[in-house]
């Protein structure tokens, strides 16, 4: 090999080693890397057009090592949405002691045939140190007319989906029954406080510590509560949602969609069951606002006399969907189904309804909470990131 060729090889090797070193620095300690770039007078640019991977957020000066660990755990849960990562056999890690975040039980609802979602959620919960009980969802596609009749299931008279004008689907029946079965278990086992999670959620940073802090504050002030949304889609924008006096990051919710995650009390579970919703069924995320008297349809609410569910919502929210309508990887088991009383009529309305919903979301942008209590005025308002298509 000539001198010139050898020089090129050495030069390329040196550049490759330097690039690898910089990449390692950027991944392991982004704050040090950013300081290195600044000292060298190098301008750094962030490209949001293409997805290259994940980086932990650099610590602020006053943050602790525990907070950095929590931030990195969030980075891992984000990466797990798109990638199936297994721990390296060459790196020793001390597993977290799983906990229940102050709840008697944490239920994870998952369809047996959705092993991909189940695996991702179990890995994510392990990263967060959350001990959840896997609860097999009721598969609406497997329900036949005889089974529905035997369970006494009937659709709420006059119910129509607000977007597609269709009736209830079997997927929605399965979803409702999945939550309904958990409510029954809560009452049967007299569980005082549980967290219910669906299997298509992404966790916000510091999910565990933020939820625990909110529930501790709820207990401290003696708030009488039945249900607390942890993840939802706010639909009622004409009326403001007010902060709860004495509890930071908690609001009185209006009309909401989604049952991504919520904390439920024994008292709340009893109220939901006492409504006897199976013979006047509508989607579970329509049923809950009826029960706390915030549904816009008086026609629907007239079928439920007791609408005294004491509902609240975490704000900012701690859970969001992993995918939204129209995005790659999006799929809905409740929408892609058959209508409840005719197995021959299939539904796949979400693709056609995407444009309609996006137009509605545009109208919702700019809404802000009214904070009646000055002590809570520093709590962030609803963010625009919340205004996205529903599952």
UniProtKB/TrEMBL annotation:
Residue ranges constituting the Glycosyl transferase family domain according to the UniProt record: 105-287
Pfam families: Glyco_transf_25
Membrane-spanning intervals of the chain: 12-36
Spans annotated as Disordered: 342-391
Signal peptide positions (record): none
Protein name: Si:ch211-13f8.2
A GO molecular function held by the record: procollagen galactosyltransferase activity
InterPro entries recorded: Collagen_mod_GT25 (IPR050757), Glyco_trans_25 (IPR002654)
Keywords: Membrane, Transmembrane, Transmembrane helix
Highest taxon of source: Eukaryota
UniProt organism field: Lates calcarifer (Barramundi)
């Amino acid at each position: 090999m000539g001198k010139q060729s050898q020089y090129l090889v050495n030069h390329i090797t040196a550049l490759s080693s330097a690039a690898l070193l910089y990449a390692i620095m950027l991944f392991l300690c982004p704050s040090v890397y950013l300081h290195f770039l600044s000292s060298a007078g190098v301008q750094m640019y962030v490209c949001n057009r293409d997805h290259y991977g994940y980086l932990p957020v650099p610590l602020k000066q006053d943050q602790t090592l525990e907070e950095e660990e929590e931030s990195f755990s969030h980075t891992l849960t984000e990466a797990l949405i798109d990638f199936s990562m297994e721990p390296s056999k060459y790196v020793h890690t001390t597993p977290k002691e799983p906990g229940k975040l102050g709840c008697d039980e944490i239920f994870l609802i998952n369809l047996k045939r959705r092993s991909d979602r189940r695996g991702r959620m179990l890995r994510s919960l392990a990263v967060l140190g959350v001990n959840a009980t896997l609860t097999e969802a009721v598969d609406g596609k497997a329900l036949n007319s005889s089974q529905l009749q035997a369970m006494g299931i009937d659709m709420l008279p006059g119910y129509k989906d607000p977007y597609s004008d269709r009736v209830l689907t079997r997927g929605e029946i399965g979803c409702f029954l999945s939550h309904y079965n958990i409510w029954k278990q809560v009452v049967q086992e007299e569980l005082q406080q549980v967290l219910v999670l669906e299997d298509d959620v992404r966790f916000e940073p510091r999910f565990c510590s933020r939820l625990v802090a909110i529930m501790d504050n709820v207990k401290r002030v003696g708030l009488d509560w039945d249900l607390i949304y942890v993840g939802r889609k706010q639909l009622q924008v004409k009326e403001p949602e007010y902060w709860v006096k004495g509890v930071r990051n908690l609001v009185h919710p209006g009309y909401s969609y989604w049952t991504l995650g919520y904390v439920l009390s024994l008292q709340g579970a009893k109220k939901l069951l006492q409504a006897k919703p199976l013979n006047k069924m509508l989607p579970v995320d329509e049923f809950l606002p009826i029960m706390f008297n915030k549904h816009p349809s008086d026609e629907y609410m007239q079928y439920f006399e007791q609408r005294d569910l004491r509902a609240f919502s975490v704000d900012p929210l701690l859970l969001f969907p992993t995918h939204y309508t129209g995005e790659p990887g999006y799929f809905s088991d409740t929408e892609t189904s058959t209508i409840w009383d005719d197995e021959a009529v299939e539904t796949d309305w979400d693709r056609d309804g995407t444009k309609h919903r996006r137009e509605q979301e545009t109208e919702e942008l700019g809404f802000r909470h009214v904070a009646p209590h000055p002590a809570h005025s520093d709590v962030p308002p609803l963010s625009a990131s919340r205004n996205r298509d529903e599952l």
